[in-house]
Design goal:
The complex is a heterodimer. In chain A, strands 1-2-5-4-3-12 form a six-stranded antiparallel barrel. In chain A, strands 6-7-8-11-10-9 form a six-stranded antiparallel beta barrel. Chain A has a two-stranded antiparallel sheet with strand order 13-14. In chain A, strand 3 (152-155) and strand 4 form a beta hairpin. Chain A is 33% helix and 26% strand. The longest helix of chain A is centred in the N-terminal third of the chain and has 35 residues, at 36-70. Chain A is built from five helices and 14 strands. Chain A is globular, with a radius of gyration of 23 Å. Chain B is mainly alpha-helical. Helix content of chain B is 69%, strand content 0%. Chain B contains six helices and no strands. Chain B has helices at residues 3-21, 34-46, 48-63, 72-88, 98-120, 129-157. The chains are: A alpha+beta, B mainly alpha. The interface between A and B is large, with 53 and 58 residues.
Chain lengths: 319, 170
């Protein structure tokens, strides 16, 4: 009988735990992290952030070495590919020199920080998604600098994501490749074909964003995509990426496209959080031309290597 | 220091390690589930009830740092910790490779449960084949680390080695 009682107690404990978990999941899914549970999370982040920062400082060289060990197969393939690229570059030195010259000229335009028209905070990345399904970044600046939930996060290359959690001393960033992330985007116009907008979102197992445009939209691979003037969550005119693929849906009901983001999340060290609240009208990047649609971003292309320098223009003010 | 205090300290260390250290030690882009391994080890050493409670606490602690719904890892770790405890009571043999085996099976079961519940509550990141590939790699990583975590938990609990010579009868 004691054995049966013990088994019954075990099942009772498991039942209580399962019900507690389901309640937590429901509360979190419905209300987000704004209540006491969110406060608990922010406290936990605040406590662990210094540890993360310390470990990040110490572990970065180790991490690079570890990446080299665990990705040696990729490195060999990359090495072969790069050798071919070097050979191609040597055979086309004039074009490369021209590209380098153009690159150096356009680097002056990369002073994104100086061009920003809104207050912003530069943060150092101190943590990257702790779980296997957690594509987030953690930075060392938080509510004490004015960062709040939902604020856009960018890098000189383009948008990175948005703030999804903030505490004193740090903030968590949802990156644009997260399937739960979405942003309004705009294509450039092609002659008589006007610019059009769509909602881009991250995809599982891919670094590209997916977007669906209305039928009849003219979208070409390589088109520069910027945030849409209709977007209320992001300022308009921020660079997102370029169209990688564009295919018409069966029955011509729309166009499915993928966007290769300019930003390479793995190589980022610093991020800029725009202290911009959703719905604020007006551009956030200083205008350098008077065009009304975003032209293709200024790119420097050498065989096999493309460096995006971000757009040098902004669209009309939009909300 | 009491057993419970030592175990609580271990869970804190494990969660901090998971959050601050393991993201730097990804293999094929995945991290192991240290909290799950602790739940497995405690469930194996101390029975299903302890496995479930420790799994819940470790999972909840980890959940505080994740974008996924709070309570999702707590649920998964608790169920897997409980399940291993129940399974352990039916084992006649405890070969030395058992921790690695339990780490792999527990990691895979926990991963599948995470995906299943995740899909139900609308976690987009777990959907698709990529999610299964990720948990498969993570389960292998768990299998590699399991003997160390089992050893650590055994020391913390102060229990004798239940993983004895291969094929010994208990």
């Amino acid at each position: 009988m004691p054995g049966a009682r013990r088994a019954s107690r075990r099942r009772y404990v498991l039942l209580v735990i399962v019900l507690t978990c389901l309640t937590l999941i429901t509360l979190d899914t419905r209300n987000g992290r704004s209540g006491p549970l969110g406060a608990l999370g922010r406290v936990a982040h605040r406590i662990v952030s210094p540890v993360q920062e310390g470990v990040d400082n110490v572990a970065s060289p180790v991490s690079d070495w570890w990446d080299g060990v665990t990705n040696s197969g990729h490195l060999k393939r990359d090495n072969r590919r790069l050798e071919q690229q070097v050979a191609a570059l040597q055979g086309n030195q004039a074009a490369a020199n021209e590209a380098i010259k153009e690159n150096s000229e356009l680097k002056a335009l990369l002073q994104l920080h100086d061009r920003l028209l809104v207050k912003n905070v530069t943060g150092l990345i101190i943590g990257r998604g702790a779980g296997n399904f957690d594509p987030t970044l953690t930075i060392d600046k938080g509510s004490e600098t004015g960062i709040a939930l939902g604020m856009p996060v960018i890098s000189p290359a383009g948008i990175v994501g948005k703030v999804i959690q903030v505490w004193h001393g740090g903030a968590q960033i949802q990156v644009l490749t997260d399937p739960a992330f979405s942003v309004g985007v705009q294509t450039p116009g092609h002659g008589p074909a006007p610019a059009t907008t769509g909602i881009a979102s991250g995809q599982n197992g891919s670094h590209d964003l997916s977007v669906e445009f209305d039928p009849g939209t003219k979208v070409l691979p390589g088109d520069a995509i910027v945030t849409s003037p209709q977007s209320t969550l992001f300022p308009s005119g921020l660079t997102v990426g370029t169209i990688a693929t564009a295919t018409a849906q069966p029955g011509n009901t729309g166009i499915n496209a993928t966007i290769a983001p300019y930003v390479h999340l793995g190589s980022l060290q610093y991020l800029i959080v725009l202290l911009w609240t959703a719905g604020t009208p007006g551009p956030v990047v200083a205008t350098t031309t008077t065009t009304t649609t975003a032209p293709p971003p200024t790119t420097t292309t050498v065989p096999g290597v493309t460096t995006s320098l971000g757009t040098t223009t902004t669209t009309k003010a939009g909300g | 220091m009491s057993r419970a205090t030592r175990l609580a300290a271990l869970v804190v260390v494990i969660v901090v390690t998971q959050v601050a250290v393991l993201p730097h030690l990804r293999v094929f882009g995945v991290v192991p589930d240290l909290g799950l391994l602790v739940a497995l080890a405690v469930g194996y050493q101390d029975g299903p009830e302890a496995g479930a409670v420790v799994g819940f606490v470790a999972g909840f602690g980890f959940d505080l740092f994740l974008e996924t719904p709070l309570g999702l890892n707590a649920l998964v770790y608790a169920i897997v910790g409980y399940g291993i405890g129940v399974l352990e009571s039916g084992l006649f043999r405890s070969p030395r490779w058992l921790p690695s085996f339990l780490g792999a099976v527990g990691g895979l079961a926990g991963g599948l449960l995470f995906i299943g519940v995740g899909v139900l509550v609308g976690v987009d990141a777990v959907k698709g084949v990529q999610g299964v590939v990720t948990i498969s790699y993570a389960a292998l990583y768990d299998a590699f680390l399991a003997p160390f975590v089992f050893f650590l938990v055994r020391r913390v609990l102060g229990t004798e080695d239940r993983v004895r010579d291969a094929w010994s009868m208990r």
